[in-house]
Amino acid sequence: MDGLRKTMSKVTAIVAVIAALLGLVVGKFLWGASNPATPTAAQPTTLSSTDAVAPGQLDSYYAFLSGGQSGDVYVYGVPSMRLIKTIPVFTPDPRSGYGFTPDTKAMLGGYTWGDDHHPVMSQTNGTYDGRWLFVNDKANNRVGEVDLKTFETKQILNLPNEIGTHSLTITPDSKYLFTASEYSAPLNNGPAQGNYAPLNAYSEKYFGILSSIGLGSDGKMNLNWEMLTAPYDYDLAAAGKAVSDGWVFVSSYNSEEATTDTEVNSTKNSRDYVLVVNYVEAQKLVDAGQYDFVNNGVKMIDPRKHPGLAYLIPCGKNPHGVDVSPNGQWVVASGKLDPIVTVYDFNKIKAAIEKKDFQGTGWGNLPVLNYNDVMTAEIQVGLGPLHTQFDDKGYAYTSLFVESAVTKWQLGTWKVVEKIPVNYNVGHIAVAGGDSEHPYGQFLIALDKMSQNRFLPVGPGYPVNEQLIDISGSSMKLLREAPANREPHYAVIVPANVIKAENVYPVGKSGNPNAITAENQAKVVRNGNQVTVYMAAIRSHFTPDQLTVKQGDKVTIYLTNLEQQPNITHGFAVSDYNINVAVDPGQTKVVQFTADKPGVFPFYCTDFCSALHEEMMGYLTVQP
Ligand code: K7E
Ligand code: CUA
Ligand code: CA
Q1: For residue 476, what are the contacts with CB-CB under 8 A and spacing of at least 6?
Q2: Which domain covers residue 427, as residue numbers?
Q3: Whose CA is nearest to atom 1 of ligand 1?
Q4: Does 164 fall in a domain?
Q5: If both were cysteines, with which of 375, 438, 463, 588 could 560 make a disulfide (CB 3.0 to 4.6 Å apart)?
């Protein structure tokens, strides 16, 4: 017996040596004996239409695109247009386990999708600073926040009184985010209240909502207040900057208050409105406790009771977008059904407000500014203008949905200088830094809603097309394009060095109280039918690797990946239990389930982490 044990321990020792050697060899194979050659950023200024980012070279920009119905954000390298990452925000993701762990499940609040349209990045002094990315969910009235150190979603904020949260904009100091409802609803329309008003009471009982979200220095979102607005449909909001700092502009297309045959009935008026709100004054009011009421726990402002907070400016028929130029002076609105963009001068808006130069009153007696007094230019840009972006050289770019083109025009002279066709039916366009005070210019991505004869046929469901256009020279050049099987509505593009991504979570500094810092801290704690497992994952094993529980036990596993080497992610899946998570180096994740199925269930690593990745497994045995 003794002899056998000795032989066995010898075998174990030999296996261990072999494994260690293998680990070394694998390490060399994967990571190279020395540091891999540091890739160099491509030099985009020398790009021509034939240039690409060569293998081994890094892109010079990041593009963060909203994933539309996929409820995610996805990340391209620009100019290669290579997909680098998909970040789940409103939708569960089996690859990472987002929405599978109890904390992320709670964050998703029972929803399994979102419809995200407008990503915005945090700014410092009007410049993108790469800390956080925010994106709206039009379907379920939420704002999600991604931490750009880890590229993980860190918070989802619900907007209780808002329906169809479509617009999202951030102030140049990142103190506030504003969202606006695309649809209107009766108050107390939250899921819990179920308050109801018939659609024929639309004009009196339904309201649009403008929400102000405060942003802490740690990036935590807090709902400050919400303002009632006319029951129009609000498509986009833009925070003022520089001279217009302190104001927010919101375009609306349904001043007709149509509730049926909207396609026809919301296009009857020759003009709709841009709502102009003084959010600094609104905030002061709330800080002084002078909000009007509380609805679903939110401080509500009724601007009809507080002159000076909100104004209406007539704009082109059925606008789709309002944008503010980098210097804050020009407020640009395009009417989808007018071939023009209208440029307002904020200085004139301010003067008109001060002089009380109004052409009349609108919803709730809000003053309506005189169109001709605040308008500076009407530019014939082409058919179906939607969104406008700005570059670093004093040009603006407007997408033309109907015409399938992008128009370039000049600020100040208001002259159209060039047009480039796109393929096709472009929605948003995004210029690098194009909605900040300091655009980088250089690249523009046209987010085309469709594609025609550009990609191999994949059945009746076509991909959309994203086209990269070089705007650094005197004429625009189409560089390349990429298909997507989701609908990107908008994108944020920043130079690569703005993003300071971490590549490991420092072990012991994750802030997770249930993290362990060494393998020998792994343990199983039983308390009645509660089984708590502190589990370690490190190449190429789980500790413990045998878990025996009784049927009906509630199992919580705090799984820490003890690796500190970049790129070594371990996965954890349990057969037949619908469980998978990925745990990045140094990270701790929670897996929770009731062991309701008796039997033997292997658990295994789902991320190919080493040559012995397949061997990284264990058994969950559930005793009947
Ligand atoms: Cu698609 Cu900004 Cu939601 Cu326009 S929106 S395209
Ligand atoms: Cu760990 Cu595969
Ligand atoms: Ca209209």
Answers
A1: 406, 408, 418, 420, 444, 469, 470
A2: 2-498
A3: 489
A4: yes
A5: 588
